[in-house]
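User: Design a sequence. Structure:
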């Protein structure tokens, strides 16, 4: 079979579509050769050979040697020199190249083919003795290091001593004789170490290097990297053997690396570095400081050393043309390696360049505007998850940071402020205009006001879907959760971590995108939402089928979500409205009341407050659909804990403190998440849902009257398991609606529907759809109930589950398609069979996760609903799924 493919010199056997066989480097060298770019000729030994070599117990197929000889003949023919010829030797580089570039693979060997005789030939034909001996010493050094396994320190030390002896600072200042002496020294060192001389035969050198590339495929470093990046061992690597071109032939020669656009900002400007009179890795090795490619970049940096644009203007123009040509050809930003030999430009590598999220966005949009790619391609090229980084303030990448610990990246964005350890202090100090970071062991619904007041939240416990994480994401507050190594001492108001201490008021910084916690203030940079971002979003909106709503209940969040493009509210959690300091007493009074009469007294106090909440939300959402979930959490979450709270409730309700304490004990539950919550509250205390329904309809009528806009409330009943539960609750809602409509002499359309968040509800979806006009999949609870894993505690062991491959991803982050997904599929199918007009949406945290959104598109749901800051991510992900 064919193990060897040629490239360069009008004979490229391969092309860019052959990465699997030729590796990325080989395929692109062939491609550049065949589109007429100056590529030194060479050949690629395929990845298939690598596999065959290992299959046969590290033996080459017999026909390989002849094919390599033919490959060499191709190079010799194009260059007009012969490999190993003492008078005029051909030199080659040996380069590894897997499908994806991979650290851990053998480093490149340059100048291969030099020995004690050919070095003299090279000196004569080039007319430059110094260059010849410099090349030889480089070769001995590289070959000994990467093929013979000798420590490069051995050679570096000798070089340093030589420079000291000569009293010079730079390699370039050494003379031909200096290099000649060093070569002798190097060779003696190799022989002393290995007990045999440095190989002089060019053929032996070549096969040694080829063998080292294939050997490095199974090196420990390569294995570790493959494991971390899911690269199969069976892929193998290719080997590229290529004629040398020399960037170290004096002042008209150079070597460099470049990006066709700025990989960190995306700016459409060439970006790169080069070095005059240098070879290969000198640019990245840091031996000499590389110079800028463009004049503009040099000026911006205030650097003195001439840019390539200035030092080699003609070659620079040629290079710039190649950049543009490669971009047009590959239709993407390219990362390029080149060498200039005595004024002649040679291309040595090109590939799609790595880039930051910001650059990815800008480059995609710019390229679509330039007509290089279509808007569809632009949409597909931006990773929705990476948008998250762009919507929040981020840490100034250049600022120093003093990292003390790392937790989970629970809610993106970065924030600095004074450390505070309770929510009341957070509220008080932020009220005085101070930025604060709220630090808690974990948060509960009672911390909402503190979380709102804080710039960021840090918790010692809790996973990615802990209370702190979910609420913080919802509010768009940066949050680091589960930072297990911090110890909080509430008495002394200090936090201790890895031997450091933070007192209340000390400035800390958290980065919710990485999980890092730092001492001191780290400056942040603000995001930009208009421009490229807005443009990409517009394109995405024309392509997607899924609607995108938001989970929001405060006016602020509603406004933020609309600004991010939300098309309605998919989940308005009414309980969040109950924690307000002005209302909590009435809420507690309602809960602790002994009978319906007592409850109704308290509820009457809450009615105007709730009506005001809904009025404001309907106004902001201006006719967009608003799904309001009736009270859901276990009542104990609202109960008083502190003595003065009991007294307050006692005063307001006229009931004794003792009685209240007894009621509190009665309401205690061992497993509240599976307890008296959701519609179970409505079943026991219909008057609660009646009050909420009344508030909704009165607000809706008010806003409809005032604005003339159509307000269509969608009333949602939580935690339904049976059709009968929903039937009972729907009766309460319908009855209340009729009452309000009669009183107000005005009717409006509304929907009654349910959350599907219990496996039983999914299975009995047919009957439930008889009562429900919409289903909203509450996938947080559905995951918790289907998997039987508590979302608040799972963080402790879910990591092991993911590591051991039990779940591919955290099922609270990305839908467990096999289990929870099947329940959704069943519910959708059975629900739609019973009611073809049934509206279907998802409102769990998964509504903002691209993989889960793709699943929702597959199920043809009507909408996804997610926290405000994830709305743009969902819009883009929905467009990608639809394309
Ligand atoms: P890596 O994958 O680590 O970038 P490469 O195989 O691209 O390794 O080689 C590194 C550098 O060596 C190249 O950027 C180039 O400067 C130099 N190099 C490789 N082959 C040649 C060659 N045939 N002629 C001149 N320089 C070369
Ligand atoms: Mg390279
Ligand atoms: Mg729920």
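Assistant: Done.
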């Amino acid at each position: 079979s064919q193990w060897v493919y040629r490239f360069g010199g009008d004979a490229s056997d391969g092309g860019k579509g052959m990465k699997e066989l030729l590796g990325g480097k080989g395929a692109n060298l062939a491609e550049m050769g065949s589109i007429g770019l100056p590529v030194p000729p060479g050949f690629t030994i395929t990845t298939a050979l690598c596999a065959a070599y290992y299959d046969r117990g590290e033996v080459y197929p017999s026909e390989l040697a002849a094919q390599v000889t033919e490959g060499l003949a191709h190079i010799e023919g194009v260059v007009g020199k012969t490999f190993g010829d003492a008078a005029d030797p051909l030199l080659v580089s040996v380069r590894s190249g897997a499908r994806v570039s991979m650290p851990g693979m053998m480093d490149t060997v340059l100048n291969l083919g030099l020995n004690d005789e050919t070095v003299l030939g090279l000196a004569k034909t080039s007319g430059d003795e110094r260059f010849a001996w410099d090349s030889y010493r480089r070769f001995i050094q590289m070959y000994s290091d990467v093929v013979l396994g000798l420590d490069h320190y051995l050679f570096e030390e000798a070089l340093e001593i030589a420079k000291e002896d000569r009293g010079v600072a730079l390699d370039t200042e050494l003379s031909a004789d200096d290099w000649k002496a060093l070569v002798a020294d190097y060779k003696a060192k190799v022989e002393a170490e290995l007990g045999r001389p440095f190989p002089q035969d060019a053929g032996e050198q070549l096969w040694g290097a080829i063998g080292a590339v294939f050997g490095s495929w199974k090196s420990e470093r390569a294995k570790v990297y493959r494991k971390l990046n899911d690269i199969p061992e069976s892929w193998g690597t290719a080997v590229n053997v290529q004629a040398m071109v020399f960037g170290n032939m004096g002042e008209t020669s150079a070597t460099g690396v470049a990006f066709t656009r700025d990989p960190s900002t995306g700016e459409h400007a060439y970006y790169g570095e080069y070095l005059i009179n240098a070879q290969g890795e000198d640019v990245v090795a840091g031996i000499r400081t590389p110079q800028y490619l463009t004049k503009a970049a040099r000026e911006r940096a205030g650097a003195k050393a001439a840019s390539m644009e200035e030092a080699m203007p003609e070659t620079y123009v040629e290079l710039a043309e190649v950049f543009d040509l490669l971009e047009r050809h590959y239709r993407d930003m390219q990362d390029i390696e080149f060498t200039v030999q005595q004024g002649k430009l040679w291309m040595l590598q090109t590939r799609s360049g790595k880039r930051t999220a910001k650059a990815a966005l800008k480059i995609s949009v710019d390229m679509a505007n330039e007509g290089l790619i279509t808007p569809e391609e632009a949409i597909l090229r931006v990773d929705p998850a990476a948008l998250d980084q762009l919507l929040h303030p981020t840490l100034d990448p250049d600022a120093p940071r003093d990292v003390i610990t790392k937790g989970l990246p629970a809610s993106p964005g970065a924030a600095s402020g004074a450390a505070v350890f309770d929510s009341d202090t957070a509220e008080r100090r932020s009220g005085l205009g101070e930025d604060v970071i709220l630090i808690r062991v974990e948060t509960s619904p009672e911390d909402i006001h503190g979380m709102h007041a804080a710039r960021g939240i840090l918790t010692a416990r809790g996973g990615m879907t802990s209370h702190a994480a979910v609420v913080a994401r919802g509010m768009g507050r940066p949050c680091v959760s589960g930072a297990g190594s911090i110890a909080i001492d509430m008495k002394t108001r200090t936090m201790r971590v890895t031997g450091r201490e933070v007192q209340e008021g000390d400035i800390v910084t958290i980065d919710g995108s990485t999980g890092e916690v730092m001492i001191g203030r780290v400056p942040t940079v603000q995001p930009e939402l208009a421009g490229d971002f807005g443009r990409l979003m517009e394109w995405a909106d024309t392509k997607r089928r899924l609607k995108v709503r938001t989970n929001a209940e405060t006016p602020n969040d509603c406004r933020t979500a609309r600004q991010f493009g939300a098309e309605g509210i998919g989940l308005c959690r009414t309980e969040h409205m109950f924690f307000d300091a002005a209302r909590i007493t009435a809420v507690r009074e309602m809960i602790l009341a002994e009978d319906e009469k007592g409850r109704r007294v308290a509820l009457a106090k809450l009615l105007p407050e709730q009506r005001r909440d809904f009025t404001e939300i309907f106004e902001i959402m201006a006719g967009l659909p608003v799904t309001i979930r009736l009270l859901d959490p276990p009542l104990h979450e609202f109960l008083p804990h502190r003595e003065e709270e009991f007294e307050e409730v006692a005063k307001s309700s006229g009931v004794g403190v003792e009685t209240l304490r007894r009621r509190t004990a009665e309401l205690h539950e061992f497993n509240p998440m599976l307890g008296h919550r959701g519609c179970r509250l409505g079943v026991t205390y219909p008057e609660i849902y009646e009050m909420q329904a009344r508030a909704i309809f009165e607000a809706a009528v008010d806003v409809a009257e005032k604005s003339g806009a159509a307000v269509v409330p969608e009333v949602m009943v939580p935690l339904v398991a049976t059709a009968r539960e929903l039937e009972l609750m729907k009766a309460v809602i319908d009855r209340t609606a009729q009452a309000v409509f009669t009183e107000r002499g005005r009717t409006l359309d509304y929907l009654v529907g349910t959350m599907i968040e219990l496996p039983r509800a999914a299975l009995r979806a047919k009957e439930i759809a008889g009562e429900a006009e919409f289903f909203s999949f509450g996938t947080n609870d559905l995951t918790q109930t289907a998997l039987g894993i508590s979302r608040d505690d799972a963080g402790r062991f879910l990591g092991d589950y993911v590591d051991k491959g039990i779940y591919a991803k955290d099922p609270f982050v990305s839908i467990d398609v096999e289990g929870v997904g099947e329940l959704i599929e069943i519910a959708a199918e059975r629900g739609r069979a019973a009611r073809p007009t049934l509206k279907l949406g998802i409102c769990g945290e998964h509504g903002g996760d691209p993989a889960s959104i793709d699943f929702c598109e597959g199920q043809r749901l009507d909408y996804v609903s997610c926290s405000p800051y994830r709305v743009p991510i969902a819009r883009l992900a929905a467009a990608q799924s639809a394309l």
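The chain has a mean pLDDT of 92. The radius of gyration is 34 Å.
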